[in-house]
Amino acid sequence: MEIGHTWLSQSVQRTGVNTEAKYLLLGYALKYYRRYVYSSPPTN
């Protein structure tokens, strides 16, 4: 499972929606897969 970047409508940008979505996805990954790997490209 890979959690990537998110495209949001302008109406929900800067509202915490992305933070909540990532939190829920991470919770799902940890509950059902019991692991999570974080990676970032060197240009980030």
- The proportion of strand residues reads under 5%
Order of helices and strands: H
Question: Percent helix among the residues?
Answer: 25-40%
What composes the largest sheet? none
Give your account of this protein's structure.
The chain is mainly alpha-helical. Helix content is 36%, strand content 0%. The protein has 1 helix and no strands. The mean pLDDT is 86.
Write the layout of secondary structure elements.
Layout: H1 17-32
Condensed summary:
The protein is mainly α and 44 residues long. It has one helix at 17-32. The mean pLDDT is 86.
Salient structural properties:
mainly alpha, 0% strand, 44 residues
